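sanity check both lines:
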Amino acid sequence: MKIPENSALIVIDLQDGDNDACGIPIMEGSTTYQNAPKIIKFFREHDLPVVQIREIHRPDHSDFGRELDGVEGVHCLEGTPFAEYNPLTKPEGNDYTIGKRRYSAFLGTDLDLLLRCKKITTLFLIGGLTDVCVRFTAVDAHQHDYKFYVVTDCVTGSSRKAHDYALLNMKYLQRESNITTQDILEAEV
């Protein structure tokens, strides 16, 4: 695999705190936190942009919209540990940071503007949840005409079944989108 020079890594919602405490289900057996630091390091070492996305909500819940209609409880409130970046993958150096209030990293943020100003055309997606924020970001990336790859062993779903279906959904949009951490670490830049 060759990583184009106009690529960026999008790190989605790798945040601190206890998912169980806020009612967000997480699949067992995820390797996201083992693989994410390696991928982030690879992009930094090759001077490719790293964009750190985090979900964050106001303490008065005024920006949740319909999000609490599903299985998730109140989560990612400003000033709580879960709203902070995870120490293993937190932004460093020249990383870009973007807060979002919806599932997609594109909706209501300046992500598209940043990517276009940096002349980025290819996105590599890692983080969580595969079936929610990663998938919605991938769909919007597709709708904005970005090529995207999702690193299948560096995304975590709400369940194994939901994770697998989301990966199939993203592959439906862009048939070569599903890659692995090893694909990146062995890639030419």
